[in-house]
Amino acid sequence: MSSGMHWWIVLLVVGNTLGMWWLIWWASRPRAGEAATGDVTGHTWDGDLQEYNNPLPRWWLWLFYITIGFTAIYLAVYPGLGKFRGLFGWSQEGQYETEVDRADDTYGPIFASYAGQDIEALAKDPEALQVGQRLFVTYCAQCHGSDAKGARGFPNLTDAVWNWGGTPEAIKTSILQGRMGVMPPFGPVLGEEGTENVANYVLSLSGRESDATKAAAGKALFDTQCVACHMPDGTGNQALGAPNLTDDDWLYGGSLQTVMATLTGGRNGQMPAHQQFLGDDKSHVLAAYVYSLSQPK
Ligand code: HEC
Ligand code: HEC
Q: Average of pLDDT values for 47-53?
C-alpha cells in the first residue's frame, strides 16, 4: 500500500467515525422552537395521525455511542487503519500459518514415520491405509472416484492394469510428477478407410468382434504407425503410458466407434503432479493406499 493510500484510508475511517459521533450529537440536541418533550409537533397526516416529539430512549442513543467506542478499540487492536497493523500485529495470514504450523507439529511426525517405511510394508498397515484413504477421498476422488474405480478417461486404480506401472515406485512417481498421455491424432495420416481398418485390427488384438479382411489390411498400417509406442504385439509401453491393446481393458472405450475416435482425434489424458501441493510424505502414504487397492486381499 502506498503511503498516499494509507493516509487516505486513515482519513476516511477517522473522518467517518467522527462524523457519525457529530451526527448523533447534532440530531439529539434540543432545538429552539420545538415542541416540548411528549407534546404533539403539529404535523398531521390524513387528519388523524399526529406526530409526537418523543426522543429516542436513552439506552438506544447510548448503543450508538458504544458502537463508536467499539470502533476505536477495534481499530487500535486489529488492522483497519491503512498500514497500521494493530497493537498485537494480528493478520489473517498469520493466523492461518499458526494453524498450519500447529497441524504440521501434530501430524508431521506421523507422516514422517510413515515416510521412513517402504510402501509395500505400509500397504499392510491398517492405520496408514486409513490415513491414505482419507487423503485419497480429499485429493483424488474427484477424478478417480471415491472407490478409485475411475471413469472414462480416468484410470481404475483397483485392478491389475497399469498404463504407467503398478509397482510402488511407479505409482509414487505418477502421484508426485503427474503423467501426460500423448496419443497423437492419426486422422490425416490414415484417412477414413485406413482408420477403420486399423481400428478393426485393434479390436482383433483383444479378441473383440471385428471384420477379418479390414483387420488384415489394418495390421500393415499398425506395424508402421503404432508399434513405436504400443509395441509390435500391441502390449503397450509403460514408459510412455501407451496402453496394452490386447487386454480388453479400455481407458476410453473399446467399441469400433470409440477406437476410431481415439485414432482420428488422439487422446491426451493428464494426471496432475502433486509434489508441490501434497509433498513427499503424504504422497508416500497415498502411494501405499493405491498400491494396496490392486493387491489380492
Ligand atoms: C507416440 C506414441 C503413440 C503412438 C505412435 C500411438 N499411440 Fe496409441 N496411445 C498412446 C498413448 C500414450 C495412449 C494413452 C493416451 C492417454 O492416456 O490419454 C494411447 C492410447 C491409445 C488407445 C486408447 C486405448 C484405451 O484404453 O482406450 C488406442 C485404441 C490406441 N492408442 C491405438 C493406437 C493405434 C492404432 C496407433 C497407430 C495408428 C497408435 N495408438 C499410435 C501412444 C501412442
Ligand atoms: C484432475 C484429475 C485427476 C486428479 C485430481 C488425480 N488424477 Fe490420477 N490420473 C488422472 C488421469 C487423467 C490419469 C491418466 C493419465 C493418462 O491418460 O495416462 C491419471 C493417472 C493416475 C495414475 C496412473 C495409473 C496407471 O494406469 O498407471 C495413478 C497411480 C494416479 N492417477 C493416482 C492418483 C492419485 C493417488 C491422486 C490423488 C493424489 C490422483 N491420481 C489425482 C487424473 C487425475
A: 86
Residue 113 C-alpha cell reads as 514415520
What integer pLDDT is reported at residue 279 of this predicted model?
A: 92
Cα 211–Cα 216–Cα 221 angle in degrees, nearest 5: 120
For residue 100 the three cell numbers come to 498450519
Q: Give the predicted TM-score (pTM) of the model.
A: 0.77
Quick one: pLDDT at residue 234? 98
For residues 88-111, average pLDDT: 91
The vertex-51 CA angle with 47 and 57, nearest 5°, equals: 160
For residue 292, report the distance from its CA to the centre of ligand 1, in Å.
Answer: 28
- The CATH code of domain 187-268 reads 1.10.760.10
Say how many Å lie between the CA of residue 208 and the centre of ligand 2: 27
Output the DSSP codes for 112-160. Answer: HHHHTS-HHHHTT-HHHHHHHHHHHHHHTHHHH-TTS--BTTB--SSSS
* Fold adopted by 106-178+275-293: Cytochrome Bc1 Complex; Chain D, domain 2 (1.10.760)
Residue 197 cell numbers, joined: 481398418
